[in-house]
């Protein structure tokens, strides 16, 4: 790309017409004019390909840092009844604290940018007794577990 721009400007500097140069490097005359103007104002730097910056983020780095502090305090501290963050809740917190609206599906991307990962809570009863469960698995499960009578692998021969 940069070679083509330099070639076009070299041809233009040789005295060729704008339309002739555009035809030789296979581009629009307006592109040749834009490249010439960029070289005149910025020098050789003006001919380099620049990466498109894209849309600026709606949350600044400072706001993301504040969001992280809010999330670390837990959802109860933000007024929720359970200490579980969901993307919908985080979207509400962002809108309430920063006035920025995000769809809950986009919150995962923001969290990944912040170095966080999606965690799914284990669904276990609060009154679960690990000791009793272990005893049941060791003593009762072998008695309850059924094995088919006369079971043997099927021969493939």
Structure, explained:
The chain has 157 residues and is mostly helical. Among the domains are: 2-47; 61-113, no CATH class. 54% of the residues lie in helices and 0% in strands. It has 7 helices and no strands. The chain has helices at residues 2-13, 18-25, 29-42, 61-73, 87-98, 104-113, 130-144. Helix 1 packs antiparallel against helix 2 and helix 2 crosses helix 3. The chain is elongated and about 95 Å long. The mean pLDDT is 89.
Q: Top keywords for this entry?
A:
mainly alpha; 54% helix
Report the uncertain regions. none
Number of helical segments? 7
Overall, the morphology is elongated
Strand pairing plus helix content: what structural class?
mainly alpha
| Number of beta-strand segments | 0
Give the SSE string: HHHHHHH
Beta-strand residue percentage: under 5%
CA radius of gyration is 33 Å
Largest sheet: number of strands, sense, barrel closure: none
Overall pLDDT: 89
Proportion in helices: 40-55%
Task: For the record, give the distance between the C-alpha atoms at the N and C termini, rounded to a whole number.
Answer: 66 Å
Question: What is shown here, in short?
Answer:
The chain is an all-alpha fold and 157 residues long.
């Amino acid at each position: 790309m940069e070679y083509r721009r330099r070639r076009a400007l070299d041809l233009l500097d040789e005295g060729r017409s704008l339309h002739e140069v555009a035809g030789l490097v296979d581009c629009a005359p307006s592109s040749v004019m834009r490249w010439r103007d960029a070289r005149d104002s910025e020098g050789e730097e003006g001919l380099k390909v620049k990466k498109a910056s894209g849309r600026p983020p709606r949350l600044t780095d400072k706001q993301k840092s504040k969001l992280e502090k809010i999330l670390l305090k837990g959802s109860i501290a933000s007024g929720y009844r359970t200490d579980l963050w969901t993307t919908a809740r985080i979207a509400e917190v962002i809108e309430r604290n920063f006035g920025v609206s995000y769809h809950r599906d986009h919150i995962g991307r923001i969290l990944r940018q912040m170095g966080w990962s999606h965690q799914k809570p284990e669904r276990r009863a609060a009154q679960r007794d690990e000791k009793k469960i272990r005893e049941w698995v060791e003593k009762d499960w072998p008695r309850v577990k059924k094995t088919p009578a006369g079971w043997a692998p099927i021969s493939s021969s």
